[in-house]
């Protein structure tokens, strides 16, 4: 296939570019050129909101749009004169209001989520433009991505705590649920969509199983060969000062995905793989939140 991937230099889009190259596809990436490119891709250097006629007349079997965060991002690409057979947009579970009954299903009404704010409403606007202008386009709504090339200070924060033999500060008793999706499973599911072309076009994607915060931290410590000791932090302390996820629990119903792709990466296996990569690439996280500084100043 000929594939256009938006982004292609960090985390999900970088992993996708390497994955589809490894499968023998011709991969083109669209980005501003501010970071090193994956070896073997064709690079189109441009801000996606200022495409002009740069893509006019070009044809791709599929556009894998990983870096669309607004309606403008999708509109400028669709209206650029580009030709394509399939369009797959990586949206977000943030399009579901937190007031919806859980687990969230694809049939539910979408709208503003007070936790995610404009991020969620902008993603929803991107979805709505695409659905209204590109017949048969696929929209994927993931929970938290994880895997190698992760550039947010999530698993890396826990890995750092483990490698420093730190006691881990849990929000409350650590019972808040988290749901994840490995970047490799995202790429596998994209392949399935392109092979089967199901009539359903909107999919929640993610692991069927959720884990509690405490279970997730324990898995991360085990990946580093350590066993955590925990201390409970009173829920009155603002969670994002010392922990890498919001005080917000949600679960996606991924039964539609599971009909097409029954198995996903076991979380323990994926976390172990991520740790082995991270310990050799500690600079992969470009913004390290000062969780430890807050903990040492106010919680210890």
Description:
The protein has a seven-stranded parallel beta sheet with strand order 3-2-1-4-5-6-11, sandwiched between helices. The model has no long low-confidence stretch (mean pLDDT 97). The protein has 300 residues and is an alpha/beta fold. The protein is globular, with a radius of gyration of 20 Å. It has two domains: 2-145 and 182-204, Rossmann fold (3-Layer(aba) Sandwich); 152-178 and 208-248 and 265-299, UDP-galactose 4-epimerase, domain 1 (Alpha-Beta Complex), CATH 3.90.25. The relative contact order is 0.14. The chain has helices spanning 11-22, 71-78, 118-133, 155-163, 183-196, 213-223, 255-260, 267-278, 291-299; strands spanning 2-6, 26-31, 42-45, 59-65, 83-90, 138-141, 144-146, 168-171, 177-178, 180-182, 202-204, 211-212, 230-233.
Short description:
32% of the residues lie in helices and 18% in strands. With 300 residues, the protein is α/β, with parallel strands linked by helices.
Q: According to CATH, what is the class of the largest domain?
A: Alpha Beta
Cα Rg: 20 Å
Overall number of structural domains: 2
What is the string of SSEs from the N terminus onward?
EHEEEHEHEEHEEEHEEHEHHH
Please work out how many helical segments DSSP would assign: 9
Relative helix content = 25-40%
**Largest sheet, order of strands side by side?**
3-2-1-4-5-6-11
Q: What percent of residues are in strands? A: 15-25%
Query: Could you say what the CATH architecture of the largest domain is?
Result: 3-Layer(aba) Sandwich
Largest sheet: 7 strands, parallel
Do you know the CATH topology of the largest domain? Answer: Rossmann fold
> Which residues sit in consecutive blocks of at least 5 with pLDDT less than 50?
none
Shape: globular
Give the integer mean of the pLDDT values. Answer: 97
Distance between the termini: 55 Å
Structural class: alpha/beta
The CATH superfamily of the largest domain appears as NAD(P)-binding Rossmann-like Domain
Write down how many β-strands occur, each being a DSSP E stretch of 2 or more residues. 13
């Amino acid at each position: 296939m000929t594939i256009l991937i938006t982004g292609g230099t960090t985390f999900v889009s970088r992993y996708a570019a390497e994955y589809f190259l490894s499968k023998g596809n011709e991969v083109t990436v669209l980005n501003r050129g501010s970071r090193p490119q994956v070896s073997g891709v064709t690079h189109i250097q441009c801000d996606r909101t200022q495409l002009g006629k740069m893509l006019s007349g070009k044809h791709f079997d599929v556009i894998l749009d990983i870096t669309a965060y607004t309606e403008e991002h999708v509109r400028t690409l669709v209206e650029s004169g580009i030709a394509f057979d399939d369009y797959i947009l990586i949206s977000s579970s943030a399009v579901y209001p937190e007031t919806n009954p859980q687990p969230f299903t694809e049939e539910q009404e979408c709208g503003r989520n007070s936790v995610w704010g404009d991020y969620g409403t902008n993603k929803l606007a991107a979805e709505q433009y695409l659905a209204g202008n590109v017949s048969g386009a696929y929209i994927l709504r993931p929970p938290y991505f994880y895997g190698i090339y992760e550039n947010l200070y999530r698993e890396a924060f826990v890995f750092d705590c483990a490698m420093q033999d730190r006691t881990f500060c849990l929000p409350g008793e650590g019972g808040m649920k988290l749901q994840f999706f490995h970047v490799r499973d995202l790429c596998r599911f994209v392949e399935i969509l392109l092979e089967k072309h199901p009539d359903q076009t909107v999919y929640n994607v993610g692991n069927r199983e959720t884990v509690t915060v405490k279970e997730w931290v324990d898995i991360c410590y085990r990946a580093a060969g350590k066993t955590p000791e925990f201390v409970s932090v009173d829920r009155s302390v603002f969670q994002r000062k010392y922990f890498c996820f919001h005080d917000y629990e949600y679960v996606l119903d991924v039964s539609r995905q599971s009909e097409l792709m029954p198995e996903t990466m076991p979380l323990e296996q994926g976390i172990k793989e991520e740790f082995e990569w991270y310990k050799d690439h500690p600079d992969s996280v470009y913004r390290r939140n000062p969780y430890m500084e807050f903990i040492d100043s106010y919680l210890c």
